[in-house]
Amino acid sequence: MRGVNKARRTVVRPYRSKSAAVRIAALARLLPLAVLLLVLLGCDSGNVAPVNGGPNSTTQPAVNHAPAPSATPPQAQPAPADPGIAIYRAVVADLVARSDQHGYPLLYIGPRLGSGQALDVTDNSPATPPTLLDQLHHLPDGSSGSASVYLATFAAVTGPPEEGSVVRGGGGFVTLGQITYDAAGGSATVRGSIYQSRADAVGVIYQFARVGGAWQMQTAAEEWRGQGVG
Fold this sequence. Notes:
- The chain is of the alpha+beta class.
- 23% of the residues lie in helices and 23% in strands.
- The strands form 2 sheets. Strands 3, 4, 5, 6, 7, 8 and 9 form a 7-stranded mixed β-sheet that branches. A two-stranded antiparallel sheet has the order 1-2.
- The chain is globular.
- Residues 1-7, 45-70 and 76-80 have low confidence and may be disordered.
C-alpha cells in the first residue's frame, strides 16, 4: 500500500500564465525610466538633488549654477593725490638749494600758508598740508645726510630779535604761499621763502605747468633777498 501511494503522489506547481510574465517584464523595463523621470522633474522644479560620492562616501548637496563670489574682495581705489603736494615739494627743494651751505640739518615749515609777496600769515590763513612732511625726507642737511623736517612757527624756532632772529641749530625756516591755478587747471603760481637769519633769506615766485599729468617747474624768479644768500 505504501508503494502504491508513493507512485500516485502528484506534485502541484504554481501556475503562471504567459500574459502575467509579459506584464512583469514590461514593468521591469519601465521602472528605470520612471526613476529618471522623477529626477528630471525634481531638477526642473528648482529642488537641489543630492550628489553621491563626497568625502567618506557621504552625500553632498548639489552645486547650483549661480556665480561663485570672488575669492579676493575688490580693493578700494586710492584717493587722488593733492596736486599741491608735488608743487610744494619742488618749491622747498629749490629753496634749500639756494642757501650758501646747500642744506640745513633742521628744516622748519610754517604751519600756515602765506599770501602776497611778503607771504603774510594770519590765524585765518589755510593750513600747510601735513602730509607734505612725508615728501621732504630727501632734503640735504649740508653734510651728506638728510635734514630733519618739522612744522613749527617762526617765533618758536628763532632766537631773540636783538641777536638777529637766527634760526636755532643752524636750521632754515620755510614759508609757503597759497597756490593759484589758472581756470583750465594747467598752470599754477606760488611763492615761497627760506630764512636762516636777517642776512640770509630769500623770497621766490614760481610758475608751474602740468605736463603729461605731472607738475613741472617752468620759472623761479627771486623777488627779494637778504645779504649772504646764494
